[in-house]
Amino acid sequence: MGPEFGRLAYVRHIITYSLSPFEQRPFAKYFSVGLPNLWRRFRGQVLRVGPLFMAGYALYLWAIEEEQRLKRKNPADYVNDE
Amino acid sequence: MTHQLRKSHPIIKLINRSLIDLPTPSNISAWWNFGSLLGLTLLIQILTGFFLMMHFSSSDTLAFSSVSYTSREVWFGWLIRNLHTNGASLFFMFIFLHIGRGLYYTSYLHESTWNIGVIMLLLLMATAFMGYVLPWGQMSFWGATVITNLLSATPYVGSTVVPWIWGGPSVDNATLTRFTALHFLLPFALLASLITHLIFLHERGSFNPLGISPNADKIPFHPYFTMKDALGAALAASSLLILALYLPALLGDPENFTPANSMITPTHIKPEWYFLFAYAILRSIPNKLGGVLAMFSSILVLFLMPALHTAKQQPMSMRPMSQLLFWALTLDFLLLTWIGGQPVNPPYILIGQTASLFYFIIILILMPMAGLLENKMVEPTYVTPK
């Protein structure tokens, strides 16, 4: 069922090196590199996501107020009533 | 070579090939966790549902009180019920995120896997709809009445089909008993579809966020992704328990605490949150048949995704216009969900109609156009083979 290890791909001239998990710090540079990287990824996406959702939220707030306004009578229409 | 049972036993080797020695791309992100979470949620729903079914009576005179008895008198019945109701919400949350992953990373290019997935979504929606009717509360009864009545819009056969589905002239005992039977049966159809979904997926192997062939860098599913999925499962279980233990009625409707009464119509009939987007699309068209067709089309349009794909680059990772449209679609979906829960008053009517229109415009027109434009903007050096 599907490609198995040994039949996935034929590659040449690729050498990989790795350290044993017992010879390295488990969370090396988790904060010192990880947090700046998180900021980099955030900056790359925020202008594509943020403005849209801010506009959507503004629409949501406006719609609630508008519905409330439309349910009420306009006081200005009754200002000259005795 | 030593004899390895997991590779030679006829049954165990199936499990081995799917969950242990399965070659998996090393770079699949958290968005790939939702598949296993959906399987886990299905299992939770089947188990909790089975225990609830032991105490449920599917008669219209007994259903509501049997659920009340289960919650109050059965040992941990309240917990089993809360897990089941909130598990359904979690099921839909995961499936929406799973589909979102599929749209962003163009997983729909695995056509067989994708099509079975859409069928599973339809099965899930049918199961959840029928399950909500079982407690026989006000919203159960009236939600069933509204939605089943929609089928009367079908030309020629509509007025005949609806009483046939009801088992009588209205939603009544016969409807409840057959919905109980179907609600028990369909999850097993879902389970069978899940196995088929996985068989097709494993023929080619998982996609990955880069969109290029990962065959040169694959790692075994166990222990890397068993562990990663275990973490996802722990987080999902925590969310389910927070809902079930602290906020069990957060996502529900207060009307369903009242037993069904065919003589009293609730002021605001609406489905559970996961159906609200479809409800908004349904109500956006003044014509009954038009609304029904639009509602079904909003799900069935997913079958068209492979045909609408025009970009040479596979995922949206390097396609900014498509990304913008994807997030616009997500926002549109959220707006539709919000509007579906609101009464049909201005300005919600116009917002709902606009959002419904944009839902189809984004999927059918803007996203394919963006793909074509992006092809012209960038000359890719590697084209992913289909």
CATH topology of the largest domain in chain B: Cytochrome Bc1 Complex, Chain C
> Major beta sheet of chain B, specifics?
2 strands, antiparallel
Spatial extent as radius of gyration of chain A: 30 Å
What's the CATH H-level homologous superfamily of the largest domain in chain B?
Cytochrome Bc1 Complex, Chain C
Give me the count of strands of chain B.
2
Topology (SSEs and partners):
The complex is a heterodimer of chains A (82) and B (386).
Chain A: H1 34-71
Chain B: H1 5-8, H2 12-19, E1 23-25, H3 34-53, H4 63-72, H5 77-104, H6 111-133, H7 138-149, H8 158-166, H9 173-204, E2 218-220, H10 221-246, H11 276-284, H12 288-300, H13 305-308, H14 320-340, H15 348-377
Antiparallel strand pairs in B: 1-2
Helix pairs in contact in B: 3-5, 3-9, 3-10, 4-5, 5-6, 5-10, 6-7, 6-9, 11-12, 11-14, 11-15, 14-15
Task: Summarize this structure as a short list of keywords or feature phrases.
heterodimer; A: 82 residues; mainly alpha; Single alpha-helices involved in coiled-coils or other helix-helix interfaces; B: 386 residues; Cytochrome Bc1 Complex, Chain C; Helix Hairpins; 2 domains; two-stranded antiparallel sheet; 15 helices
Write up this protein.
The complex is a heterodimer of chains A (about 80) and B (about 375). Chain A has about 80 residues and is mainly α. Chain A has a domain of about 45 residues: Cytochrome b-c1 complex subunit 8 (Single alpha-helices involved in coiled-coils or other helix-helix interfaces, Up-down Bundle), CATH 1.20.5.210. Chain A is built from one helix and no strands. The mean pLDDT of chain A is about 90. Chain B is an all-alpha fold and about 375 residues long. Helix content of chain B is about 65%, strand content about 0%. In chain B, α5 packs across α10, α11 packs across α14 and α11 crosses α15. Chain B starts with a helix and ends in a 9-residue tail after the last helix. At the A-B interface, α1 of A face α9 and α14 of B. Chain A: Pfam families: UcrQ. Chain A: Keywords: Electron transport, Membrane, Mitochondrion, Mitochondrion inner membrane, Respiratory chain, Transmembrane, Transmembrane helix, Transport.
